[in-house]
Each structure stands twice: as structure tokens, then as C-alpha cells.
Design goal:
The complex is a heterodimer. Chain A is α+β, with helices and mostly antiparallel strands. Chain A has eleven helices and nine strands. The chains are: A alpha+beta, B alpha+beta.
Chain lengths: 322, 380
């Protein structure tokens, strides 16, 4: 058990932060949008191998990169490419960005579909791998801070490549990815709001001086911090229980975080220009993914209390599952 | 960063579990645990149990060798705490001795204090109580009124303490008393409970017997050597002690064990087929896992000698949220267990009624994280 980044992990985080910081500033034109995908940054991260760290260094390192990328106001697709794709495809390279599509609602709008080059369609048992042509997708306006889009015509999956019986694996790493992405967005949103409440004065005092604000900010900070460690543990262990716990915690707790952070930033916080929504409405979007909190919680229950439990002894000890 | 136990830590955990199997009486779960760890029966049992633990090197392994420990790291101490808590805390009040009273003695005690007390604590036969709270001073400890008047070669103590767990059976009291008019002019005294002028009265309440005692000090005369540290240094000492107390109890471990028990009962009665209930249980488990990792981070910081700003307070907040959710779950899904149906669950519920109060209220923990951890300004 060691909660400190080792030298290699610290160097990785520092290196990716350096690239991300060069793109931290939102262009003026992006300030009125509900989301802003930075294609240049996506390419830079790809070219520099950051989406490949899952293969080269491991899922924990992929989660660290995903968390850092999710702290940015500018959107990139990192978590699915870095965490889900290596688990499903091994060393095979899949063209990104990658979207995950619920096969039961194929005609609905899907997160990241307008920017995706590949879609992984969750069919319940199998996963269909669908190359995406930009002209087959139409953008859908959404409150969520991701590009949403739907297929202009329902894709024909009969000829698509199928990964047999890989839906569980997809869902497992999808949960790790959404937890890591939530952790980064939550940390950034809390820090951003914390700065705001320290600077903004009401009734002659900084907002941050009011005890009710302090207590609720601490709880937001607690959620973001716990989520950081839960998502890293899930990436590190590869255990179903840890992935389900991380997703369940994220999807259950971001609601109070989103509500309170917008509460404390007041009317400013509901404007696109203020840009808090670029994190909070990503959190909201992720809240319903991979089955949402109820399915994640049911899977936690299954892992803990069904007859078929996790069996790896080291992992059991690490998580406390007995 | 990595989240596995070392082989040595796994072996240590097994060693602790084996010791528990061997040392706990057969009727432990049925007879002792339901009475609560503050009951007279458990307090007395702890004197023999902890003495046996001590012989096996399992009472204070994390203490320095010169004080009877084995220089083990904080992880071993925590693994020990997790297993003890999950077993119903058979160390009784002595968990306090090893968690913080001993470390406080090591840091602030005179050589005489260390000689007199550390060996006793490490032998597992001594019971302490903490004389902190008063009827008018709980979380706001600095407003305490019990006074120790310095009369040259001795002090005379007058006042009263309340909510003093284990006081009926305790050998020693770790007492906070005012030694000056300033708000924080407080000192720490260690005194035998048999000192003339000390009396104890118990009263009933929502939590189990043994916790709710009032201790009266009437013209209690103690030598100057009973003072721990310098006069007026009590606030510093107690801040140090409470930082140990806040993460000293593995609440997530006991909570998950209680949740396991509730699910076991529901399964036995063929009531474990409600997906709403299952998902609520899953969410509670996730809350406890979050508290677990926040707590482990504090232990890790200690191992790495990283100063604790407010991380220990944050894990108390996280644990409490999970505990409250679990208590609600028990009432909703296994209410009969709180009415004679399951003594272990009833004990868990009752012992946690003041979980947001003991060791400093939840609001105080939140204040401390806001101030120290998030650098938020003083109150408006």
C-alpha cells in the first residue's frame, strides 16, 4: 500500500500536465459553447503516446493521464482510448477518438459520437466495433459538456466486427474510465469554485467565510478526493468490485457536488462564459453511463454478497472483500 | 502508487486473526459483544485478553522497542485495529491506550511517566478513561471549567467530567483541567482513579451501558508530577492526541462487517431478493470503501512522515456519512434486529448513535478541513 506516486508516475503526470497547460486557455469563441473539443490537443496527446500509456505502462498510468486530461476545460477523449481500448484490443491499435454506444438505444444521441472515429457498441454480450464516418453522424444539441450526436441512419451491425462475449469487459473498463474522468473533472471543478468563493464578497465577507459554504465545500472536496483514489485503485487492481465501487461512488455522489458548486457560484455559474459547466455537466453526463448508479450498485452487491465472489487473494486483502 | 498489501502485512493479518480465534471465548459473539465494549464485563475481559495479546507481540507492535513495542510501521497498527474492530473490539477501552495515550506519553511524558505508564499499557492490564468533556464543554473543550489549582508542590482539582466511558472500571484518568484564566490555559494530568475525592456516577442513555458516566472531583490532591508536560501545555497535547484518535478507529471495517451481517440475515430469511435494497446496500458499501481509502491515505502519510493537515478529519467525515446511511438501512430493512433480533447489529447501531459527536463533532471536523485543508477564511 503506497499512496504516493512513484518517480515514474510523478514524471508522467508532470509531463502530461505540461502539454495540457499549453492548452489551458479557452479561446474566446469557445466561451459561449456548451462544450469545446480541442482536436489539436487530442492529436498532440495521441502523437506523444499518452493514449497508449495503458499498453506501455499499465492501467494505473492510463488512469493518471485520464484524470489530468479531465481537469481541462478543453475536451479531449482520453479515458476510453487509454483505459477501455487496451483491455479489449490488446496491442491492436484502434483509431480514436472512441465513443461507447449503448446497443439497446442505437438511434439515440451518444456521447462523443460526433468526434469519434470508432464506436464500441455494447450489445449486451458482444461488442460491435464500428468505424465512424463523420458524414454518417449528426450533432445533437445538449446541456452535457460533451459533443453528442446520433446516427443519421441506424448503422447496420450485421457486417461489423464483433468481439464475442466482451460486453462485461467493456463495461468493467468503461466504469474505471468514467470514474477516472469524473475524478479529474470533480477535482478541477472544486478547485475552480474554491477560488471563486474566496475572491467573491457578499454582505462584506468572502463567500468562503460562511460556515454553511465551508462545510459543503469540504464535502465536495471529500467526494473529489475519494474518487481520485477509488478510480486509481480500480485501474490498478483490475477487479470487478473495485471498478463497480468507483463508478457507484462517482455516480451517487456527483449530484451533491454539481448542485453545490453551482449554488456557490450563483447566477454567474449558470452562464457558459463562466465555464464551470465544462466540468459539472461532464460529471452529469457520466452519471448515467455504463448502467448508471443503480446497476453499478447492484454489481457491487453481487460482488460482495453473491456466491461467485472475486477470488484473487491479494486483491481480496487489498479491497477488504471477504 | 499501489494498493496491495505486502506478503508480510498479509501474514500479519492472518496472525492477528489466528490470535483472535484462539483467544476469544466461544460465547464471545453471543455473550460479550452484545454488552458493548464499554460494559464492565468486556472491560474486565480486556485485562486478560490484552495481556495475552501483549505476550504475542500484538498489543503495541507499532511502538518503539524501548517502550515495549516492535518498531512495526503504522500499517501493522492499522491492520491490527481493523481486525479488532471487526471482532467487536475485544481490547475494550485499551484500544485508546495503544492508539493515543501511549504515544502522548512518549512525546510529552517525563521519564518517570514513561517508566510508570508505558510498561503498564504495553502489558495490557491497565484501564484508562479520558476526562475531557464536561456538562458545559464538549466539542468546545477550551471552555472546560474543572480547575487544577497550583499550590506549589501539589495541585488541588475540583470540577466534574461527563460522558466518561469506562470510568467505573478505570485505573487511571487522563484529565484535562484549567490551570489559568486564559481560554487555553489548560493542563493535562494523569491520576489514579482511586485518588481520594474522585467519585463516579452512571446514567442511562441511548448507547450501551458503560459509556455514560459522570466523574466528580472534589478537592482531589495530586502531586505536581501528575502533570503531563508543562503547565498550560494541555491544548498542544490534546491536539496531538486527537489527531491519533480521529483515525484510530477503523469505522469502515466495522461498518462493512455490520452490513455483511445484515445481508446474511436477510438472506437467511429469504428477503435478499429486492433489487432496491441490494442497490442501497451496494451504495453503502461504496461509501465505506471511499472512507477506507481516505483513512489509508492518512496511515500512508504517517508512514512517509508527511505532516497531517486535515486528512484525518476528512476521513471522519467520510466514515460518518457511510455510518449514517447504514444505520438508516438497518432500520428500514432489518428493524427487528434492533429489537432483540440481532444483538450484534443492535450494538453496532447503538454505539454509532453519537458517531458524529464523539472525538469532536462532525461540524468541528468540517471546520478544520475548511480552515487547514482548503485554506478558507475565518468565519463571517
Amino acid at each position: 500500500m503506497n499512496f504516493q506516486l512513484n518517480d515514474e508516475q510523478a514524471a508522467l503526470v508532470s509531463a502530461v500536465q505540461e502539454i495540457l497547460q499549453d492548452h489551458a486557455e479557452l479561446p474566446q469563441s469557445a466561451r459561449i459553447k456548451s462544450c469545446w473539443f480541442n482536436a489539436n490537443l487530442q492529436q498532440l496527446l495521441t502523437d506523444n503516446g499518452y493514449l497508449n500509456v495503458g499498453r506501455e505502462l499499465g492501467p494505473m498510468e492510463a488512469a493518471l493521464v485520464s484524470i489530468e486530461a479531465a481537469k481541462m476545460q478543453a475536451l479531449t477523449e482520453v479515458a476510453v482510448s487509454a483505459l477501455v481500448v487496451p483491455a479489449l484490443f490488446g496491442d491492436e491499435v484502434i483509431e480514436g477518438p472512441v465513443a461507447i454506444v449503448n446497443g439497446r438505444n442505437l438511434t439515440q444521441a451518444h456521447r462523443n459520437l460526433p468526434i469519434a472515429r470508432t464506436a464500441l457498441v455494447d450489445l449486451g454480450d458482444d461488442v460491435a466495433v464500428l468505424p465512424i464516418q463523420a458524414e454518417t453522424v449528426e450533432a445533437v444539441p445538449s446541456i452535457f459538456a460533451y459533443p453528442y450526436g446520433r446516427f443519421k441512419r441506424a448503422p447496420d451491425l450485421s457486417g461489423a466486427r464483433r468481439l464475442r462475449c466482451r460486453s462485461d469487459l467493456l463495461r468493467h473498463w468503461w466504469r474505471v474510465a468514467l470514474a477516472a474522468e469524473s475524478a479529474g473533472a470533480a477535482q478541477a471543478a472544486v478547485e475552480f469554485t474554491l477560488n471563486h468563493v474566496k475572491q467573491r464578497h457578499v454582505f462584506g465577507h468572502p463567500i468562503a467565510a460562511f460556515q454553511t459554504v465551508q462545510h459543503r465545500m469540504v464535502k465536495c472536496h471529500m467526494v473529489a478526493t475519494a474518487l481520485y483514489f477509488l478510480s486509481l485503485r480500480a485501474a490498478w487492481s483490475g477487479l470487478s468490485y473495485d471498478a463497480n465501487v468507483a463508478a457507484c461512488y462517482a455516480q451517487q455522489n456527483v449530484k451533491k457536488l454539481v448542485v453545490d458548486l453551482h449554488q456557490f457560484t450563483g447566477a454567474m455559474g449558470v452562464t457558459n462564459e463562466f465555464a464551470l459547466h465544462l466540468w459539472t455537466y461532464r460529471l452529469r453526463a457520466l452519471q448515467s453511463e455504463a448502467g448508471g448508479v443503480v446497476e453499478a450498485a447492484l454489481d457491487v452487491a453481487r460482488d460482495r454478497w453473491s456466491v461467485e465472489q472475486c477470488t484473487a487473494p491479494i486483491a481480496q486483502a487489498a479491497t477488504g472483500v471477504k | 502508487m499501489e494498493f496491495s498489501w505486502t506478503t508480510r502485512q498479509l501474514e500479519f493479518r492472518e496472525h492477528v486473526r489466528k490470535a483472535l480465534d484462539e483467544l476469544l471465548p466461544r460465547d464471545w459473539d453471543e455473550v460479550y459483544v452484545p454488552q458493548s465494549y464499554a460494559s464492565d464485563a468486556q472491560v474486565e475481559f480486556s485485562r486478560t485478553f490484552c495481556a495475552e495479546l501483549a505476550k504475542r507481540g500484538l498489543l503495541v507492535p507499532h511502538w518503539p522497542k524501548k517502550f515495549g513495542g516492535n518498531d512495526a510501521d503504522d500499517w501493522q497498527h492499522f491492520i491490527l485495529g481493523e481486525e479488532m474492530k471487526a471482532a467487536g473490539e475485544p481490547r475494550g477501552p485499551q484500544y485508546m491506550n495503544v492508539n493515543w495515550i501511549g504515544p502522548v506519553m512518549m512525546r510529552y511524558g517525563s521519564e518517570e511517566h514513561q517508566r510508570e505508564h508505558l510498561q503498564g499499557i504495553a502489558s495490557g492490564k491497565v484501564i484508562w478513561c479520558q476526562g475531557f468533556s464536561e456538562p458545559g464543554a464538549g466539542t468546545d473543550l477550551a471552555s472546560l471549567k474543572t480547575r487544577a489549582e497550583n499550590r506549589g508542590d501539589h495541585y488541588v482539582i475540583n470540577g466534574s467530567k461527563i460522558w466518561t466511558s469506562y470510568a467505573r472500571k478505570a485505573d487511571w484518568c487522563f484529565l484535562l483541567a484549567r490551570t489559568g484564566p486564559g481560554r487555553k490555559e489548560i493542563s493535562v494530568f494523569v491520576l489514579p482513579m482511586e485518588t481520594p475525592g474522585i467519585s463516579v456516577t452512571s446514567f442511562p442513555g441511548l448507547i450501551k451501558d458503560g459509556h455514560l458516566n459522570e466523574v466528580f472531583f472534589t478537592d482531589v490532591k495530586v502531586p505536581v508530577t501528575a502533570r503531563l508536560g508543562q503547565e498550560g501545555e494541555g491544548w498542544k497535547i490534546i491536539t496531538y492526541a486527537l489527531s491519533y484518535e480521529r483515525v484510530g478507529v477503523a469505522r469502515y471495517h466495522a461498518g462493512l462487517e455490520a452490513l455483511n451481517l445484515a445481508i446474511e440475515q436477510l438472506k437467511k430469511e429469504n428477503r435478499y431478493d429486492d433489487p432496491v435494497m441490494q442497490s442501497r446496500a451496494g451504495i453503502i458499501a461504496a461509501q465505506f470503501e471511499a472512507a477506507r481509502l481516505l483513512t489509508y491515505r492518512v496511515v500512508d502519510q504517517r508512514v512517509h512522515k508527511i505532516p497531517d493537515t486535515s486528512e484525518a478529519n476528512l476521513c471522519r467525515v467520510a466514515s460518518l456519512e457511510a455510518v449514517e446511511d447504514l444505520m438508516d438501512f438497518l432500520v428500514q430493512y432489518v428493524p427487528e434486529s434492533l429489537a432483540g433480533g440481532n444483538a450484534l447489529l443492535e450494538d453496532y447501531y447503538r454505539i454509532n448513535i453519537p458517531a458524529g459527536i464523539t472525538g469532536g463533532t462532525n461540524e468541528l471536523q468540517l471546520d478544520l478541513v475548511a480552515r487547514r485543508g482548503l485554506a478558507m477564511p475565518g468565519r463571517a
